[in-house]
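U., I forgot to send this yesterday:
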Amino acid sequence: MKKVLFAVVSALLVAVMAVSVAACAKTERVKVIGIDLTDEEYGFCVAKSDEGNTLLNEINDIIAQLKGDGVDGVTIDSLFDAEVNGTAENIGEVATSVSAAGVDRAECFVVATNTGFKPFEYKEGAYFAGIDMHLAKIIAEELGRTLVIIDMNFDAIVANVQNGTADIGMAGMTITAEKEENVQFSDPYYNASQQIAVVESNTDFDACKTRDDVAAVLKGLEGKRIQAAAGYTGYDYAEQFTNLKLTAQEDIGTSVRELSNGKTDIVVGDKYTINEMVKAINADIA
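Result:
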């Protein structure tokens, strides 16, 4: 009986301690160091094949329209403005598999994406939203094909385009020589860069004026923890700092939450996305 009573008391003590630790844990507001660390261009990727070449020419023609006068009044700039102004809408109901599209595979425009990358692609409930998703809808309509969007890990996109599961990768993808060994890219539609985020109490980067200043500070932070989304340019950027402890996450939002919770010291990500995620995290902190 005493053993049973002791076990019960021990369990209660453990539970109380767990509640106490949870009560003590707190999140901290986060800030972005507003210095561009890279110069990048985003494009859409297609297969290296005859079909891919044909599609690429069609895509480039549509991109040229969207960067100019637009398609039915929509331009890439207007999509960005809507995201910045908070007036953007989701793209509505769309098939998420070829079987659900109700038409033959040849009649589908299958898009591989990763929805953890606002404002380019994200979810509003069950619906896809973001700049790339609107562009996907416009391109599918211009091609006269049924849109199918498959949400997957970013690292899997190139392989799915290569093997024909998807016709195109649309996921805020930086055009790189490494990716071009396996797929071919459309004309660029967006100039991007990476930025870092830290908690508001962190003063390590306060004196930085240039990307070289930021790099110099990062090189001196021996053993500090840094996170980025797997497969993204932010991860490639962070890899050069071998003095830091690098961890990959599925998306930048997870890394920013880890930063706020004290589980990492620095996060690297696309400047638009990291600013969006920081804004969302800070809104939830009193």
